[in-house]
Design brief:
This protein is mainly α and 233 residues long. It is 75% helix and 3% strand. It has a two-stranded antiparallel sheet. Helix 2 packs across helix 3 and helix 7 runs antiparallel to helix 8.
């Protein structure tokens, strides 16, 4: 196997540790010799892989201390999330599974606990989203869509959901925009479906119908997964 491909293999293995949570933010990577042996690659190939991840801001060297995981996935102005999805296709489906469970629950509790301030905020976002659908302003659609899901989480008034959502907010926003780009349809059918789904969640939340809100959110996430899978072929 060529040296470059071995380094790429090592890079993918390192990325997997970042994605599955086994190397959280701030953790120091194992010693170079031990890590190279664990991955079954040479130290030169490992160094090349680490160099690439440093260049993307995912790892950082601290003189005399070692190599550490940064918080780039969560806080970077320019997130490497899209490249990671391209390199690790299963990440998109894992994120959808996670979102299905978390956002179904947040919709449920939002319908139970949303106060007047929450409802006013969500209504304003729905108006922005509807306007973006009508005008075809994609960037505004992506932002309003992500704002809607964030506002639902806030309206759940559950500290743990808010903590989890805030910790991966940047990632979720990237995930939503990637999915929407992947579902673009000149016929307008997808836009109509998405409009109906978001309005369904909003209607259940404002009427304080927790189970209806949960089912509407689950249906929305399932629609996204099915549509992306269909296009992937």
């Amino acid at each position: 196997m060529a040296q470059h491909s071995v380094a790429q293999q090592a890079q993918r293995a390192l990325e997997a540790h970042l994605l599955d949570g086994s190397w959280p933010v701030g953790v120091r990577l194992p010693a170079e010799r031990a890590l190279a042996e664990t991955l079954g690659v040479s130290r030169n190939s490992l160094r090349e892989a680490i160099f690439c991840l440093k260049a993307r801001g995912l790892l950082v060297s601290k003189w005399g201390s070692g190599v550490f995981v940064t918080d780039r996935l969560q806080t970077a102005i320019s997130s490497p999330w899209r490249q990671l999805v391209a390199d690790h296709p299963d990440l998109r489906w894992d994120t959808l599974e996670f979102r299905r469970e978390m956002e179904g629950a947040t919709a449920h509790y939002a319908a139970l606990r949303a106060d007047k301030t929450d409802l006013k905020k969500i209504e304003g976002i729905i108006k922005r989203l509807t306007r973006a659908y009508e005008t075809g302003e994609k960037n505004e659609e992506y932002k309003a869509d992500a704002d809607f899901h964030e506002a639902i989480a806030e309206a759940s008034h559950n500290s743990m959901f808010l903590y989890l959502h805030a910790g991966i907010l940047r990632m979720l926003r990237e995930h939503i925009s990637l999915n929407l780009m992947g579902m673009e349809d000149p016929s307008g059918k997808i836009t109509d479906d998405l409009r109906r789904q978001h309005l369904g969640v909003w209607d259940a939340v404002r009427k304080h119908q927790p189970e209806a809100a949960r089912q509407a959110m689950l249906a929305h996430i399932d629609f996204t997964r099915i549509e992306l899978e269909r296009r992937q072929g």
